[in-house]
Amino acid sequence: MKTFAIAFAVVFFIVSPALGDGVDEGLSNMATTELKTGTRNMIRAGIDTDDAIGMTQAMLKSHFRQEHAVKAQEIIVRALKEGLPVEPIMNKAHEGIAKRVQHENIIRAMEKVMSRYAFAYEQAGRLTQKEAQRNRIMDQMAECVTAYMADFDIDRLVYQLQYRGREMSKDEAVGLAIETFRATKDMARLHVKSKKATDLVIEALKRHYGTEKMAKMRQSFMNHAGKNSPNTVAEGYLEAITKGKRLENLGFSIGPVNSSVGSGRESVGTGGGSSLGGGGSGSPGKGAGGSRGGRR
């Protein structure tokens, strides 16, 4: 009797996860055994049960072919194993389903989002190995890439932040990195060119801007960019910072069109033409060569 009880307990322990995970009930006859297994794999990897079942249900209701649905599940599991956030990847899947995007394109979009975060996670690791801090930098960096910042310019920023970080504590360096990428992200979202936004922020770093000062510059820029061409504002700010103007004196104005030029060019209240290269002040200057695209 005792042997039977032990055997029953072992069988129950093995079978109960399959009975108790809610997958069979949630998917009932909608899904094949393979898709149910994929859903369980998502749950075992760390996805909330309702979220895993909900994603599979959404794909089935949208008539995903099984190969595409399995691929989507595998992307989620792989992202979790690599330590990447899965919420933006799952959101991309649900967004594509809601918009009735072709299923192959939904898979591609999910892969692009995962690639974007993998790139950002790797780059953030050059600045800190503390997981929570690394993830915060990664989130800002990934949003920069989403806003069409070039990989090459992200690399330039990381390089400059590594150099700048030698002058401060590790926590201060992380705070500065987060604020630096937040500023760059906001400019990129206003369609400031990748190189131009990067040149501006790098020049601020060379001029020893800390976290608070970088945040003030970002806010000042956003205020002026709401009334003027963001690219022109970026040029004006870069020129002013290069000339050593104090942050509170970074006044910006669009003057009258220069009729003698006849090109409709806007004049900047900070002086003559803009300088995009930005001379350094004793810090490394990685050249601004071509940029890599494709990870969008």
Structure commentary:
The chain is mainly α and 296 residues long. The chain contains 13 helices and no strands. Helix 7 (103-124) packs across helix 8 (131-146) and helix 9 packs antiparallel against helix 10 (170-189). The longest helix has 22 residues, at 103-124. The radius of gyration is 25 Å and the shape is elongated. The chain starts with a helix and ends in a 54-residue tail after the last helix. Mean pLDDT is 82; it is low at 1-20 and 253-294.
Q: What is the secondary structure topology, with strand pairs?
A:
Blueprint: H1 2-20, H2 23-27, H3 33-45, H4 49-61, H5 66-81, H6 87-98, H7 103-124, H8 131-146, H9 151-165, H10 170-189, H11 194-206, H12 211-225, H13 230-242
Brief write-up:
The chain is an all-alpha fold and 296 residues long. The chain contains 13 helices and no strands.
Query: Alpha-carbon distance between the termini?
Result: 63 Å
**What structural class results from the helix and strand content?**
mainly alpha
Contiguous uncertain segments of 5+ residues: 1-20, 253-294
Based on CA atoms alone, the radius of gyration comes out at 25 Å
For the biggest sheet, the summary is:
none
Instruction: State the helicity in percent bands.
Output: 55-70%
Average pLDDT, rounded to a whole number, is 82
Q: What's the total count of β strands?
A: 0
The number of helices is: 13
Helix and strand sequence: HHHHHHHHHHHHH
User: What would the principal axes of the Cα set say about the shape?
Assistant: elongated
Question: Approximately how much beta-strand content do the residues carry?
Answer: under 5%
